[in-house]
Amino acid sequence: VLRMTQPSAVLSIFAMFLHTTFGESGCTSADGDGTLGDDEPDNFDIDCFSQLEIKDSFSSLTCNFTELPPYNTNYTLSLCTKEDNNYACSNMKKQEDAYFLHFNDILSNRDVCMYSEMKRRVCRSLVVTDIVKPEVPFAINITYEREANEYLIRYCTPHSSKKYLKDKLVHQVAYRQKEGTWKTIESPYLQIKLLGKNLENEASYEVKVRSQPNGDYFKGTWSEWSTSKSFRTAREQYSTESYSSVVMVILSILGFMLSVVMIALIVVFWENRIKPAVWPNLPDHKKTLEQLCKKPKNNFDISFNPESFGYVHIHKVDGLWAKAELENFLQPSTAPETSLPEKFRSGSDLKMIPAMTDKNDLNPPVSYGGAWPAEALHRLLGTSQFAVTEGSCSSSTYQVCHGNRVPLHNDGFNLSYTLSLDPSGQPHPEPLNDDTISQMLPDSDMRSPNNEEAYFTVPNFYKIQ
Amino acid sequence: NPAFFRSTLPVLPLLLVLSPVNSSSCAMGNKTTEIRVKYENILSHDINELVNMSAENRDRCCKKYENIKVFFCNDTEEIESLQSMACNMLRFFSKHRISKAFRWKAAFVSCETLQVLQCKCERPKKER
């Protein structure tokens, strides 16, 4: 029994030792942190980056030694994944000074381990999505927009057609004048614009682009620079702002000059043309009447046709005298009575005739042209004779003197007519001369106080409106 | 009896060694934020590709009704349901003669799902 007990004790103790060393943690190191490190510290310096979907759905890992190990040391790099108690590693391929490996699982936590002859295994953990290096942009295209004076720079990235990094990158555009210093602009889009006013005219520029994960989930480093693209700026980078300002200045000057001219014209033509047109003067009746009563001009044309007054007798009178003189001149003479038709010899008839004359009877009540009812005379000459406008007054030579005892002018061209009756009783025009007057002028007693003088001079007859 | 204790003493360590390791199927637990971020940035794209590829094999996948129940999702047990679906998809498509590219893509999505959930299947995951 003692012999069986001793081996079982040893076995149980060994099992306990193994249980503590090999368990769920999969820990095989003494440090107990879960890594695959030895007791010795992981002091190898490597620089790794990943490239997602570099070939179909496979991603890649590239590592470089920042400090080269001793030349005569054989070493290998492996990408390992912890799975349960197993540790699956894949050796990386050496390409010149770098180690390269394709893989497709970017979610798992990875370790990169270095195997050397001297050290058993040294590992460093890495997260594939935190060391992403995008692919290089390509197809840079530069377009000049003349209207806006801007240069549109467009470029492409291979990740636009892939899954993980599409719209997850930020791009950096660098430009410079030939042999000048680089200037950079960052943008999450696949195009940017350079303002023409910030560039020199007719100069040669160079442009290049690179990309980097935006840091939301994927992190990493800048990609390599794209191939440079050169372009030449326009000859005249005429700023639209300066062009518009020049136009505004010219328009302002023209507007000012136009306003000055308008003001001057208004001032000059205000009294004569503008004001009468805008505020016409109301007719002044006093002035109108004065115009109407203007004396005719000398040598005014005469166009009076007595025959147009066929129903009345109109006698031409060479001159007109004052009524008082006329009365004195005709007072002693009785000869005119004999020449008078019998019909009118009676002064009473003369007296009565004006009263008997109505509006429709235009037969003159007198044969000497002395009395003429004003009413009949008005009808003959028109009732609106006094409604003459100023314009016609200036050329009108018609004049009627009602009870006017002032001597009138005896102008040579003035025709003075009086009305008389033929033996047939029809009035006919007769020029009035001295003899006629002496024969025709009646006694003053025979004058009707209601009759008015019917002498009128008609140097010109106008249609009186 | 001293002999009794000497004979029973090694049993306890053996029991400890032979006892199964207490490991949960999924280790993520309530880390829903981390799960969501990984799903949005990586897993969702591969699932979309698998969906587009499955459209070409629609008749082959869904002919039998009994095959649908293996992908049933229980409410309030999303992680366990996703684990079950991923593991079933690994086993399911390996049994049918479907195009290699599709089977590989399905296995890849299953593995990524289990990785995001930090879950394991009873059987080893299919690897390339």
From TrEMBL, chain A:
Q: Which CDD domains match?
A: FN3 (cd00063)
Q: Which Pfam families match?
A: FN3_7 (PF18447)
Entry's Gene Ontology BP terms: hemopoiesis; positive regulation of receptor signaling pathway via JAK-STAT
Domain IL-7Ralpha fibronectin type III, first and last residues per copy: 38-132
Give the main localization category.
membrane
Location in the cell: Membrane
Source domain of life: Eukaryota
Keywords in alphabetical order:
Disulfide bond, Glycoprotein, Membrane, Phosphoprotein, Receptor, Signal, Transmembrane, Transmembrane helix, Ubl conjugation
Q: Tell me the membrane topology, using the record's own terms.
A: Single-pass type I membrane protein
What Gene3D superfamilies does the database record attribute to this sequence? 2.60.40.1870, Immunoglobulins
Keyword Transport among record annotations: no
**Can you tell me where the transmembrane regions are?**
246-270
Q: How does it assemble?
A: The IL7 receptor is a heterodimer of IL7R and IL2RG. The TSLP receptor is a heterodimer of CRLF2 and IL7R. Interacts with CD53.
Similarity field: Belongs to the type I cytokine receptor family. Type 4 subfamily.
Output this protein's name.
Interleukin-7 receptor subunit alpha
UniProtKB/TrEMBL annotation, chain B:
Show the GO MF annotations. Answer: cytokine activity; growth factor activity; interleukin-7 receptor binding
Instruction: Quote the subcellular location field of this record.
Output: Secreted
Organism classification, top ranks?
A: Eukaryota, Metazoa, Chordata, Craniata, Vertebrata
What keywords does the record list, in alphabetical order?
A: Cytokine, Disulfide bond, Glycoprotein, Growth factor, Secreted, Signal
Single Gene Ontology BP term?
immune response
Pfam families on file? IL7 (PF01415)
- This protein is called what? Interleukin-7
Similarity section: Belongs to the IL-7/IL-9 family.
Identify the PANTHER family for this entry: INTERLEUKIN-7
Q: Where is the signal peptide?
A: 1-23
Q: Which InterPro entries match?
A: IL-7, IL7_sf
What's any one GO cellular component for it?
extracellular space
